[in-house]
């Protein structure tokens, strides 16, 4: 494949290809200490922030999780009891299953739409492409809080534009906040906010796929759809994996939308999602220790799931 | 259609040229209708907001009244929220970008003790749920006496493992080792090499990290919600939510729903403008983070 | 809101820190920070500051209800960041007491105010001789109804809950799109209905026994409330929309709901927002469980507390007692702009209040109904973890509304969950 030769920078508009061989200089002959010291100094400020705002808080959360504080007895060391409680807490497990169900449906739907959008965008060469890209990105610029409030109004039964659709056919207005529809309504808010973002990420990756790869397929007589599925999609598999991982991480932390929408939807309980449960434990019930336990458990689960995902997608990437 | 015809079309692998447009048009409708609603709703007075059709204009055109009222309500606190939000996100984005650029370059082009471990850990750091950190960070910062100050929002926002990761990938792929070596032979200092050679070459990555951290802080709700209790320090997200809750609480005594909607509109506009203006740059960066 | 000068001198304004350096020791007034979310509160603060030279208030609105409590609880956990004086609703008082967050104002003479306030309110604000809160406003309940529609369809205004259920059927017959009311998923509202039914599910006295709490949600008095309302919801006669949303407001204003079991603060709440139906509403006493009885309940109400983080608890107590207290200027704002229901007895009894005619209620003097209700209210206690109780009760009710739980099991399930929670927190639970 043709890649920018060493010494030529990729043009500003295009994504850099990902095939350049990584070459970390190992020049022990010339001033090992000066070189490594410079490297350390470059990383040091970031490292300090990581220690102060990631390592220390995580350590503190872990420490807190080993204590139990009760209203009557005060704080006492309880070892792993908190974790035992978390893993057997029906409310937490309920919330966890709900988020799992949510993710299993919402993530593929959203990424599927985003991929279709990216492929469509890739096939558009007119000036419209820029306009589409811009509009697709706009929901991402809307704070989740505002997005949730906005959809709260849009879902409204009395003055939202959507719930009345069924009354055109003589039915009752749709209640977007009740029953099984609630999870769908929440999923729509998330999908609305993040599909465009993922479309842009995938499209950006598609732009980096060398044209030569299509040429061969076209000469082989492949249809556009075949090319999209057999050439383009595999070529950007890593970008898709990355989008999927970030979506999984985001979904596991699901918080803002249900917290805001709880004002419209009484069905959103204190333990609707694990993160909401952790928030309520801390800020409504003053159980900071148990909240830390839940947060830590949640963080650990996210970590494991995400790492497993990376591992699997790398293995698959290596095989093909 | 034969293969030959297809080859003649403007780009390889192009299907019926209308299909992509139909797909995108459907997407646009989905993305824009809610935003259109905000735009229209912001032109309505409170009674109109609650009574007129959602996606069409009300009896009057109250946009400018709403904006005026927005900046007068509570002694003009909305203006403060806007300034705060700009300050928090601007400072966090600049700081996080600088840190990420330094670190990403350091990891990509230097070797030193502990580097491998740190790189592996970096991937893990990306996966730590940010919300899990907020509560312990609050308890720590309160012991240091800096909760309910601007620092309580800005300092934790400087953490951007993904930014460092993205810069590292970008440097690896687009900054040739030979170029840096040549500069070293010329006795240029490492800092000068970074500023004069590396930074211009990784500009798309830097703009991307800047924009992403800007958006992340601009849109952040949980961190300032927990850290701040002085309304004069709130960013827009927390301030508008407070107003929304107050609107529900005080339906009879204060008119706020129209202000929440107008305030939401004005909170979105600056970011959209930033994205439009910097489009050339961020487009190059977003694709760079694919996992290796 | 805080003024510009306050921003320059940040220390003087940030909660707790640097505030209240002692009354007049150096000739300067003590500054007391206050968190409150009353509507129109600025006028009340201004009135206080204008009439006091030794103490001045720095007021912040950090959020409504749960939002403010969340901030208070984090501040108490962290050990800093709480204000000197905080607005706290009645049901939250025992919670903050057990968190060791509140100052006993009795040591600064607050017991002198006992006779000033409605008896039920004083009893909820205190624990024996310990004064943890100074009452401000309350929410004696009464039934708001659409007089024009009840008249037109000749439906008698219900005097008992049985008649209420009958009225629900007749309302549905008159207008299939209408409901007698909505089951609002509001912990305080359901609590008010339970209170009125003679249900006394909770008991707690920190002073008597820190670890003992009474929880009995399954008594017949409590269950009949859920049986009645749950039954109406199941039959489709009562709507399921939460209160205080724009939807609920629109529903009240469009004839979708014909009644609302409302509180003393409701006239002010609805008057500004229900434009279409203004003048068509009236207030009647709450329907009774036993014909001819006079049992009443309360929905909402709040107090001022002094926090343990107050630098100058004496000055803070002065603020808590006198912010409203007997201040005519404060109640002027409180009654006429913020529409609070006063728990100060002589303010409530003032003909200016009881005799006030409301255009929204077609000239009816509704306070003539609310004031006797407040006087009739008896003892009602809360748990020191009422957020959990209300939260669980709401979540279980929501399940019943969604059809995933029977209404009959709501209270039993909540009882089970609350008892488990209490025991987990180290309490000994009695029924």
UniProtKB/TrEMBL annotation, chain A:
Keywords: Cell membrane, Membrane, Transmembrane, Transmembrane helix, Transport
Official protein name in the record: Carbohydrate ABC transporter membrane protein 1 (CUT1 family)
Principal place of residence: membrane
Ranges annotated as biased composition (Low complexity): 1-13
Organism of origin: Umezawaea tangerina
Localization in the cell: Cell membrane
GO biological process, one term: transmembrane transport
Transmembrane segments: 37-66, 99-122, 134-156, 176-197, 239-256, 290-312
Family: Belongs to the binding-protein-dependent transport system permease family.
Pfam families: BPD_transp_1
UniProt region (Disordered), positions on chain: 1-26
Bilayer topology annotation: Multi-pass membrane protein
Ribonucleoprotein listed as a keyword: no
Residues of the ABC transmembrane type-1 domain: 96-311
Cellular component, GO annotation: plasma membrane
Coiled-coil features, chain-numbered ranges: none
From TrEMBL, chain B:
Keywords: Cell membrane, Membrane, Transmembrane, Transmembrane helix, Transport
Chain ranges passing through the membrane: 21-42, 86-108, 120-140, 146-167, 193-215, 221-244, 256-278
Cell compartments where the protein resides: Cell membrane
SUPFAM superfamilies from the UniProt entry: MetI-like
GO terms for cellular component: plasma membrane
Pfam families linked: BPD_transp_1 (PF00528)
Top-level taxon of origin: Bacteria
Gene3D superfamilies membership: MetI-like
Protein name listed in UniProt: Carbohydrate ABC transporter membrane protein 2 (CUT1 family)
TrEMBL record, chain C:
Gene3D superfamilies, per the entry: Periplasmic binding protein-like II
Domain of life the protein comes from: Bacteria
InterPro entries, per database record: Bact_solute-bd_prot1 (IPR050490), SBP (IPR006059)
Pfam families: SBP_bac_1
Record-linked PANTHER family: ARABINOSE-BINDING PROTEIN-RELATED (PTHR43649), DIACETYLCHITOBIOSE BINDING PROTEIN DASA (PTHR43649:SF12)
Name this polypeptide is given: Carbohydrate ABC transporter substrate-binding protein (CUT1 family)
Organism the protein comes from: Umezawaea tangerina
């Amino acid at each position: 494949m043709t890649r920018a030769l060493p010494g030529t920078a990729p043009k500003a508009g295009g994504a850099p290809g990902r095939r350049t061989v990584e070459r970390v200089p190992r020049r022990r002959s010339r001033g090992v200490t000066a070189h490594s010291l410079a490297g350390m100094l470059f990383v040091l400020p970031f490292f300090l922030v990581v220690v102060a705002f990631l390592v220390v808080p995580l350590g503190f959360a872990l420490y807190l999780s080993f204590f139990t504080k009760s209203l009557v007895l005060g704080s006492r060391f309880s070892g792993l009891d908190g974790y035992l409680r978390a893993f057997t807490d029906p409310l937490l497990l309920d919330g966890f299953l709900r988020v799992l169900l949510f993710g299993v449906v919402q993530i593929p739907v959203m990424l599927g739409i985003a991929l279709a959008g990216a492929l469509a965008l890739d096939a558009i060469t007119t000036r419209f492409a820029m306009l589409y890209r811009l509009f697709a990105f706009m929901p991402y610029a809307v704070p989740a809080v505002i997005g949730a409030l906005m959809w709260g109004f849009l879902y409204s039964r009395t003055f939202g534009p959507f719930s009345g659709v069924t009354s055109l056919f003589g039915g009752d207005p749709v209640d977007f906040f009740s029953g099984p529809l609630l999870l769908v309504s929440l999923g729509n808010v998330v999908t609305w906010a993040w599909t465009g973002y993922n479309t842009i990420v995938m499209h950006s990756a598609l732009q980096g796929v060398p044209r030569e790869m299509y040429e061969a397929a076209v000469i082989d007589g492949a249809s556009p759809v075949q090319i999209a599925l057999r050439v383009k999609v595999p070529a950007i598999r890593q970008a898709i994996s990355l989008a999927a991982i970030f979506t999984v991480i985001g979904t596991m932390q699901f918080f803002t939308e249900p917290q805001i929408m709880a004002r419209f939807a009484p069905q959103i309980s204190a333990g609707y999602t694990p993160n909401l449960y952790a928030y309520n434990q801390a800020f409504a019930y003053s159980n900071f220790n148990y909240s830390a336990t839940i947060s830590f458990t949640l963080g650990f689960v996210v970590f494991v799931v995400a790492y497993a995902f990376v591992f699997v997608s790398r293995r698959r990437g290596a095989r093909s | 259609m034969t293969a030959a015809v297809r080859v003649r079309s403007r780009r390889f692998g192009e299907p019926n040229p209308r299909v992509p447009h139909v797909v995108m048009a459907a997407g646009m409708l989905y993305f824009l209708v809610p935003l259109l609603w905000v735009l229209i709703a912001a032109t309505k007075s409170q009674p109109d907001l609650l009574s007129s059709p959602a996606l069409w204009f009300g009896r009057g055109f109250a946009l400018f009244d709403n904006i005026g009222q927005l900046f007068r309500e509570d002694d003009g606190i909305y203006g403060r929220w806007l300034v705060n939000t700009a300050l928090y996100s601007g400072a966090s984005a600049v700081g996080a970008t600088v840190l990420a650029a330094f670190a990403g370059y350091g990891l990509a082009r230097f070797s030193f003790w502990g580097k491998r471990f740190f790189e592996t850990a970096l991937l893990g750091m990306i996966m730590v749920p940010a919300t899990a950190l907020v509560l312990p960070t609050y308890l720590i910062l309160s012991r240091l006496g800096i909760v309910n100050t601007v620092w309580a929002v800005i300092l934790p926002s400087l953490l951007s493992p993904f930014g460092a990761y993205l810069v590292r990938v970008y440097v690896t792929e687009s900054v040739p080792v030979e170029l840096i070596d040549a500069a070293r032979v010329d006795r240029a200092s490492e800092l000068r090499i970074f500023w004069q050679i590396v930074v211009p070459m990784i500009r798309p990555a830097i703009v991307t990290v800047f924009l992403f951290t800007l958006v992340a802080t601009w849109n952040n709700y949980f961190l300032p919600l927990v850290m701040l209790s002085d309304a004069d320090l709130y960013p827009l997200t927390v301030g508008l939510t407070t107003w929304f809750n107050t609107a529900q609480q005080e339906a009879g005594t204060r008119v706020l729903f129209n202000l929440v909607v107008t305030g939401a509109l004005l909170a979105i506009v600056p970011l959209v403008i930033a994205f439009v203006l910097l489009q050339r740059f961020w487009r190059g960066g977003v694709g760079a983070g694919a996992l290796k | 809101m805080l003024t510009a000068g306050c921003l320059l001198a940040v220390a003087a304004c940030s909660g707790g820190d640097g505030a209240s350096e002692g009354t007049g020791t150096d000739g300067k007034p003590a500054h007391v920070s206050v968190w409150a979310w009353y509507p129109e509160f600025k006028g009340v603060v201004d009135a206080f500051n204008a009439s006091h030279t030794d103490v001045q208030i720095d007021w912040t609105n950090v959020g409504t209800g749960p939002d403010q409590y969340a901030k208070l609880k984090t501040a108490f956990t962290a050990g800093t960041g709480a204000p000197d004086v905080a607005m706290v609703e009645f049901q939250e008082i025992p919670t903050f007491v057990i968190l060791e967050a509140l100052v006993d104002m009795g040591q600064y003479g607050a017991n002198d105010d006992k006779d000033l306030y409605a008896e039920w309110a004083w009893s909820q604000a205190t624990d024996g001789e310990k004064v943890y809160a100074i009452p401000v406003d309350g929410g004696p309940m009464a039934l708001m109804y659409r007089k024009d529609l009840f008249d037109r369809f000749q439906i008698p205004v219900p005097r008992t809950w049985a008649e209420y259920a009958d009225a629900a059927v007749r309302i549905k017959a008159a207008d299939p799109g209408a409901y007698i009311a909505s089951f609002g998923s509001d912990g305080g509202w359901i609590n008010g209905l339970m209170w009125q039914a003679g249900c006394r599910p909770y008991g707690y006295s920190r002073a008597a026994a820190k670890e003992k709490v009474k929880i009995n949600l399954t008594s017949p008095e409590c269950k009949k409330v859920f049986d009645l309302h749950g039954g109406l919801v199941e039959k489709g006669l009562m709507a399921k929309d939460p209160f205080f949303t724009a939807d609920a407001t629109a529903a009240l204003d469009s004839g979708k709901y014909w009644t609302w079991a409302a509180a003393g603060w409701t006239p002010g709440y609805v008057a500004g927002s229900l434009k279409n139906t203004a003048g068509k509403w009236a207030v009647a006493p709450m329907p009774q469980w036993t014909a001819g009885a006079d049992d009443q309940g309360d929905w909402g109400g709040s107090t001022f507390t002094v926090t343990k983080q107050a630098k100058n608890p004496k000055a803070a107590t002065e603020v808590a007692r006198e912010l409203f207290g007997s201040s005519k200027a404060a109640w002027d704002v409180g009654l006429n702009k913020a529409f609070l229901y006063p728990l100060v007895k002589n303010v409530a009894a003032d003909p200016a209040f009881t005799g006030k005619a409301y255009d929204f209620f077609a000239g009816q003097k509704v306070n003539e109904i609310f004031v006797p209700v407040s006087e009739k209210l008896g003892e009602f206690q809360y748990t020191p973890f009422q957020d959990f109780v209300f939260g669980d009760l709401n979540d279980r009710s929501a399940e019943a509304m969604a059809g995933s739980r029977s209404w009959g099991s709501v209270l039993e399930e909540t009882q089970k969950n609350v008892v488990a929670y209490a025991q987990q927190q180290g309490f000994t639970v009695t029924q």
